[in-house]
Amino acid sequence: MSFTLRFNNVEEKREISKEYYTIKDLLEELDLSSQIIVSKKNGELVIEDELIHDGDKIHLVQIIYGG
Q: Which Gene3D superfamilies does this one have (predicted)?
């Protein structure tokens, strides 16, 4: 089973590594913090506990802080 990941203008197919695979698991694999990333699944904003299923499209957007 696989899903599509889009991050930093790069799109790639990734394999789902376990039966219950969440956005949080993905962020941990990529060494990213949910405090600086907004996650979208199939075009909808989701929380880090959201499960990723076969065929899903995940888009990670980095939050930019400034003043």
A: 3.10.20.30
51 CB-contact burial (10 Å; exposed 0-12 / middle 13-18 / buried 19+)? middle
Strand order in the sheet with 10-15: 10-15, 2-7, 57-62, 37-41, 44-46
pTM for the full model? Answer: 0.90
DSSP string, 20-47: S-BHHHHHHHTT--TTSEEEEETTEEE-
Q: What is the per-residue pLDDT across 33-62, written as a single tens digit (0 to 9) for each? A: 988 999 999 999 999 999 999 999 999 999
Domains for the chain: give ranges and CATH numbers: 2-62 (3.10.20.30)
